[in-house]
Amino acid sequence: xxxxxxxxxxxxxxxxxxxxxxxxxxxxxxxxxxxxxxxxxxxxxxxxxxxxxxxxxxxxxxxxxxxxxxxxxxxxxxxxxxxxxxxxxxxxxxxxxxxxxxxxxxxxxxxxxxxxxxxxxxxxx
Length: 125
Known about the structure:
4-stranded mixed beta sheet; two-stranded antiparallel ribbon; elongated
């Protein structure tokens, strides 16, 4: 496991322990958010944008997670498709991200903060 990543113990019993990296939690959140109808893409910082232009996928782009005592706080930055109602899409993203993280990791999600970084118009053909 890389030294610069944080890992959190989610299980410890007589068979051993299970640890999950914070990047894994971020990837779960990012995939869950992009499944919501109306979400165009995840928004990231300039480094993430350059990496994606080079053809490399960063599945945790636009996601920041903070885990304290097995409780997760998630910040999601995304682009929304034009014509969708922002509060409705945001609420669905919050529900989907919370559910995905809790079901897949067993960690409790305290909050999912959504930031709309932009609106994407449909490209004309």
